[in-house]
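Table 4 source record.
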Amino acid sequence: MLPASKPLRIIAAAAASVAILAACAPDAVRSRQATDFNAYLDSLRTACPNMMVGTNNISEWLRTSGSRSDDDYVYWLDQTSRLYYQRISAQQYRDSVSAALGGRSDSPALDCIVRHLPANRPTGLPGGRL
């Protein structure tokens, strides 16, 4: 039999783990609050039709809102959010996305995504999160 304090410590540790993971959620998970970012993604559907990076069809992801179970989509969305909110440079974006999804950092799809970034986009996430 466990001492009474042991189950409480396990519960406290589990709760702390959940809180830490929630705080570290990728930008993609929080994008529901990001209306400007979502509008940017919507604009890419018409500005950049037929986007492919490696074997990944970004245009299809934008058309169907992707799938949270698709690691490539979640990664792309998170990196695109970081680019949009100026947390990474355009070159860092190109390098990271092309490395993760395959393809070249100078692909037409990545060129179009970067080219259509709004000039005066925000530098912080909605709600003041870093």
